[in-house]
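Extended Data, panel c. Modelled sequence:
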Amino acid sequence: MTAKTIRLTVSQALVRFMMAQKTVVDGETLPIFAGCWAIFGHGNVAGIGEALHAVKDEFPTYRAHNEQGMAHAAIAFAKASFRRRFMACTTSIGPGALNLVTAAGVAHVNRLPVLFLPGDVFANRLPDPVLQQVEDFGDGTVSASDCFRPVSRYFDRIQRPEQLIPALQRTMQVLTDPVDCGPVTLSLCQDVQAEAYDFPAALFDEKVWTTRRPRPDEDELARAAELIRAARKPVIVSGGGVLYSDATAELLAFAERHGVPVAVTQAGKSSVDERHDLALGAIGVTGTSAANALASDADLVLAVGTRLQDFTTGSWALFRAETLAVIGLNVTPYDAVKHGGVPLVADAKVGLGLLSEALGDWRAAGQADRAKAERARWFEAADEALAATNAELPSDAQVIGAVARARGTQDTIVVCAAGGLPGELEKLWAPTRPGGYHMEYGFSCMGYEIAGGLGAKMAQPDRDVIVMVGDGSYMMLNSELATSVMLGHKITVVLLDNRGYGCINRLQMECGGANFNNLLEDCRYEVFPEIDFVAHARAMGAQAEKVASIAELEEALARTKANARSTVILIDTHPLTVTEAGGHWWDVVVPETSERPEIAPARERYETNRAFQRAIN
């Protein structure tokens, strides 16, 4: 070692570098990496495992039970931290690495930062083929980690120690960049992990990363203001970018000053207090009647920080005004110009403020009054759906109502991901604080829920985290319930058992399909599965109980709030009952021909709705 270099293994250098990266949150300087999740195997235990052990008291390492689960927890941590902090995940080669790939898709689609550190084969190739190595008969450079390429914002394979230096610089640029933000994969050849190199000492200097806030182009700003002034029925669609930009105050100020109602996407929900008179709630396929009523004849949509996925736009059949203009206020040019959008490329916080200044005292005539009236109609329907009844099998909506009444929505974070619950929650859950609604609906990954709840709790330990999950998703990935108990991060899991994949069964029926292979009763079986979810949860160390009614659920939720350990509350629900109010058509293709007579009318409905789709994309 000299004064300007430090001799370290690649693994030691990687860990030391992560520890030197900082950020500022609410005026406090914090490590930007909150730790590393690790499941060790022969591809990482000797290299990264040794390096992490050396700093275990300064840089926490968390052990999980499933690689995908720990990655979901890391992703949820980044989401609940509004992308200001994030985590790393390390695995062995082969199946351990590939278990991360689905989660990488979650992070990539949702533009969330996480650092994946899978082990890889030997760079020197001397022991090939090693245990768990994927061999490509025609390409000697291929390994299992190549599967990360399409779901990583940046991918690199470290085959020499010095390659780590530029790779780390690129890694931090991607993880902290508002445009490029997403998962980074550094695939680490297992022999290289243990190789020593004289790294520049400057590589390990403390560096503080702050939020970059690009300002809009003056011509784009002027054009956007011109279009808004000409609009008679404008609507704002608020996406996740508003939360990540910390622009919630600017969004509300813009809406109030100019009288423009605000609808929210799955990612953008909680960016506005839904008690506000201008808050329309969710928009699109699982939207409220209020949001969709104003959207259907809107002549201008100000899309702020949203990627405008099909659930938001009703598969682009929701907005039916012939003169519709879409302004894409987005930090990412790719998203700003979707469907013929007029781009306003800028940070949401800065862009909303400057756009409001450019509009001056302009105000949309009548839109605020219309929003108030539509809200009143919607909440009447929503209250009816949420109300407790004595039904033998309650609806998802009634369970949501019980959770809201028993735990409140102000300090609670509700976590969910897939199935029918996201649709009901987006309509019916009314968050009042940023981050109170935590939904993974970009990839809609079944199994995210419990691990995601753990990650959200780690990011926001002072908030009450409620995970709502169906039996289908619970069965796919529940192991991090045990991890939450082990780490002392208490979450409450409300487990809704409708005995199968109820949401897809309903979609199957809507498309004219027969009830087939979704609900357990419609599957092939010799012994009908009677799963004891309470016993299962208790076996993983959680407290658990089953309730028989909505009244019992409310009582249990109130009583168990003080529990020190993660708690599972099970309730049987109806697989078919959904909130009829609100919502919009979704483009799921129905077969043109079939021997089954039910398909023909379903196809006819499909063609009728498809006629409203906008062709510009």
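Residues 5-209 form a domain with the Rossmann fold fold (CATH 3.40.50.970). This feature is highlighted in the accompanying rendering.
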